[in-house]
Amino acid sequence: MILLGFIDDVLDIPWRVKLLLPTIAALPLLMAYAGGTSIIIPKPLASYVGVEVLELGWMYKLFMLLLAVFCTNSINIHAGLNGLEVGQTVVISAAVLIHNVMRIGSSKDLETQQAHAFSIYLVLPFLTTSLALLGFNWYPSSVFVGDTYTYFAGMTLAVVGILGHFSETLLLFFLPQVLNFLCSVPQLFHFVPCPRHRLPRFDTQTGLLTGTKDGNLVNIFLRLFGKCSEKSLCIRLLIFQAVSCLFCFWLRYMLTGWYK
Amino acid sequence: GDLVLRPPNLRLVLAAMALFLAPFSYLAFVHYPLAADLRRSILICGAISLGGFFVVLRLIPVAARYLLRRGMFGKDINKKGLPMGEITVPESLGIVVGIVYLVIAILFQHFNFTADSIWLVEYNAALASVCFMILLGFIDDVLDIPWRVKLLLPTIAALPLLMAYAGGTSIIIPKPLASYVGVEVLELGWMYKLFMLLLAVFCTNSINIHAGLNGLEVGQTVVISAAVLIHNVMRIGSSKDLETQQAHAFSIYLVLPFLTTSLALLGFNWYPSSVFVGDTYTYFAGMTLAVVGILGHFSETLLLFFLPQVLNFLCSVPQLFHFVPCPRHRLPRFDTQTGLLTGTKDGNLVNIFLRLFGKCSEKSLCIRLLIFQGCVMPILLLAEIHAYWMVQMMITRNTTSRQFP
């Protein structure tokens, strides 16, 4: 993914092909995946579905592929402010690490413990190296991260979600990215005009950003909470990311036992 | 500048493919009684590899446009002074070969039904090293990394291989030397891993410096790959040891797609080059060959196939280590009137051949060097067969002499 992301940064690949890149990059994962391809139906729904454990087969691999495509591209489009791309990734990674160690601590199943340990080994170096980048990328940015970073970040998180067997939880951590994607759909699929950069308007006098009509969280936050500086807006969005993760922890805690 | 892309030289590459794959196919499917499983896997690998050939042919013109547009091009130094020397030739087309190769190699896993988890680990470690090398090679082409760091790149790229290598770290001492050394099997431990690393660094950089003529980089790689394939199938056919057979089959699965995708690139890179291959290709090529040499357990034979590269490296040492002045490009002098190249005092095979055999055109010189690359192989293979029989004779002689004290 790093290779394809870097090639994209160098050659500026058209976006239709860009969507395909995570598919190609995810191939080794799909080929090597030797784990189970069944999902556990939440208890309340089990009576409706009929079974407690549903064997998905190739559809599970398709889900893995879609998760990789989603994680990479959703981080890529939830961008445009100094420090936003790295910041959101760092918050999600921290949440993943805490989730991993909580599951290891509360689970008696050796396989589950190993899966979450696997995730820790991959996310810990990812978190620290990303923080080093944030040192240069935080407002005001001395460097930009490129598609190389957003694709690499998305793939790393998708990979640990898949091989750590916690992809549903990962999607919950990605709630802001999901919302951002849903809001962006009309423009991405050209139901509505889509400019090259869907960025806010910058006022050189006040130094504040004003929200445009674009359908992404950056502009929606500006329209909801009023104009503010780039740094404040980024902090607000990262707080939203952190709060979403906390909400997910609370949700899992509330639903334990009842859910699985 | 605009993109000038001649149609690929299909006659040449299809002839080359037939030339290189015919003896291999004969040995694999007719001469040696290989297991049906193995034959099926090779056939599937061959089919996917052939598909890759056509995909690369289709993608190179597309990639060439993008690369040119983003400033990744060069001018053909060996045509300086002619109109052809003014054309902006897109560089780093090795990236197309690399990506198509990786996709083929990754997908092939799915079709190897005899794979166990150890095989999967080794195979994926090999692909990780090759992928890492393609990434670092492309970064080098884009950022123009200083050469001291460049030497380090294959070291980094070879890490997955070193980490995952679970094979033996001992070498078998040739029987005649065994009495001097004291043991028949010498356990090298970490020194074996160091050797693996040095092999990767050598293969990549030696191909990189034996370059500068249209088609030379890809051409030499294609010749070596063909030799590797034939060596692999010969060892499978003549060995009864299952591990040896598996190691050489492993090598075939990785080299076959490499050969076909490289031939597609050669279609555009052969004289006169429409595209240049870049460090992306030479590093990728060297790493792929080093990887199969290591995991196929035939690294000594691989080094023999690299004899021209070894000679080129040895001749280059004075300039590379600055004992003697070293220009930016150690290329011959091009005469715009005659269209011929004249050898300079530089210490590389390109110039040495010109000084030994007289001036000639770029295309002829490249062909001469590729023939040299190809010639060492029959000689070495004959020597290998001869040595094998010598060893066999020594075994029987020793056993018979012991029976009659």
Automatic annotation (TrEMBL), chain A:
GO terms for molecular function: glycosyltransferase activity; metal ion binding; UDP-N-acetylglucosamine-dolichyl-phosphate N-acetylglucosaminephosphotransferase activity. GO terms for cellular component: endoplasmic reticulum membrane. It is an enzyme of class 2 (transferase). GO terms for biological process: dolichol-linked oligosaccharide biosynthetic process. Pathway: Protein modification; protein glycosylation. It catalyses: a di-trans,poly-cis-dolichyl phosphate + UDP-N-acetyl-alpha-D-glucosamine = an N-acetyl-alpha-D-glucosaminyl-diphospho-di-trans,poly-cis-dolichol + UMP. Its EC number is 2.7.8.15. The lineage of its organism: Eukaryota, Viridiplantae, Streptophyta, Embryophyta, Tracheophyta. It is found in: Endoplasmic reticulum membrane. Keywords: Endoplasmic reticulum, Glycosyltransferase, Magnesium, Membrane, Metal-binding, Transferase, Transmembrane, Transmembrane helix. It is a multi-pass membrane protein. UDP-N-acetylglucosamine--dolichyl-phosphate N-acetylglucosaminephosphotransferase that operates in the biosynthetic pathway of dolichol-linked oligosaccharides, the glycan precursors employed in protein asparagine (N)-glycosylation. The assembly of dolichol-linked oligosaccharides begins on the cytosolic side of the endoplasmic reticulum membrane and finishes in its lumen. The sequential addition of sugars to dolichol pyrophosphate produces dolichol-linked oligosaccharides containing fourteen sugars, including two GlcNAcs, nine mannoses and three glucoses. The chain crosses the membrane at residues 20-41, 62-81, 87-106, 118-139, 151-175, 233-255. Its cofactor is Mg(2+). This is UDP-N-acetylglucosamine--dolichyl-phosphate N-acetylglucosaminephosphotransferase. Its main location: endoplasmic reticulum. Belongs to the glycosyltransferase 4 family. InterPro entries: Glycosyl_transferase_4 (IPR000715), GPT (IPR033895).
TrEMBL record, chain B:
It is found in: Endoplasmic reticulum membrane. Its main location: endoplasmic reticulum. GO terms for cellular component: endoplasmic reticulum membrane. The chain crosses the membrane at residues 12-30, 42-67, 87-108, 120-139, 151-173, 194-213, 219-238, 250-271, 283-307, 365-389. Pathway: Protein modification; protein glycosylation. Its EC number is 2.7.8.15. Keywords: Endoplasmic reticulum, Glycosyltransferase, Magnesium, Membrane, Metal-binding, Transferase, Transmembrane, Transmembrane helix. It comes from the Eukaryota. GO terms for biological process: dolichol-linked oligosaccharide biosynthetic process. One of its GO terms (molecular function) is glycosyltransferase activity. Signal peptide: none annotated. Belongs to the glycosyltransferase 4 family. This is UDP-N-acetylglucosamine--dolichyl-phosphate N-acetylglucosaminephosphotransferase. It comes from Aegilops tauschii subsp. strangulata.
